[in-house]
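Researcher: For the annotation table, I need structure tokens for Ribonuclease Z. Please keep the output clean. Sequence:
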Amino acid sequence: MEKFDLHILGCGSALPTTRHFPTSQIVNVRDKLFMIDCGEGAQLQFRKTHLKFSRLTHIFISHLHGDHCFGLPGLISTLNLLGRTAELHIHSPKGLEALFVPMLAFFNRQMTYKVLFHEFDTREPAMIYEDRSLTVTTIPLRHRMPCCGFLFEEKRRSNHILREMVDFYQVPVYELNRIKNGADYVTPGGETIPNNRLTIPSEQPRSYAYCSDTIYLPSIADQIRGVDLLFHEATFANEDASRAKETFHTTAAQAAQIARDAGVKKLLIGHFSARYDDESALLQEASSIFADTQLAKETLCVTI
């Protein structure tokens, strides 16, 4: 199967600790790199993944709290020092461009490449990126400011041709695209050869959902139903549920409940509060509700 990997660069929350970097991730789809959030130190963590800066073309910012975007100026500056020429696209809620353009103008007076900002509405789901193999759609969340998660979905690929069957029925080359897309083949003599005799189905398309800072929001289960991997913030343990509600965050148990309700295949929890020296209690709490739960940690790579 083609590459579809998630790299965790940082999984801490707003207060810095010696254990975690602020939130940032890389989604690697067929060696195209997409960054989700860009907390402080993201570019240093990027180096540790041994991925190439040159393959990063799109950055998705969930919301404009500093622990999710303070790493952007340094990353943009580093790419400039490296002599980048390809455009860099940054997708975010409204306001990031107004904040960052003056800063970039001051610190990067001679840019070697263009930084293009794309603002999205956080109130309704919207497809904000598409290429031949992938779409990225926003997931409206509820936080103390406008905030969205992101749903990465592979497009279904065409069926695979069975070469020996195509040769056996002497199917002309110009018919192959139709057959890949599900059409039967009618021979010159009028015999209909069913598609399932000429092809095998392609692999099931894969999906990844990233749910950033949000209060417990059961309604998102409908949009992320059945995804292969769900990352959901789990800032607090259940014993601190009142604090979670006050700060518009989620507990580990609530994240697991979302995963169970949505019927996802695997849950990854992160965005841990600095108050916990050991996140194993969060893992235990979530796993008791949704068994296939894993703790995020820096440099972790999960293949989807």
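Researcher: And a one-line annotation?
Model: Residues 184 and 196 are 8 Å apart (CA to CA).
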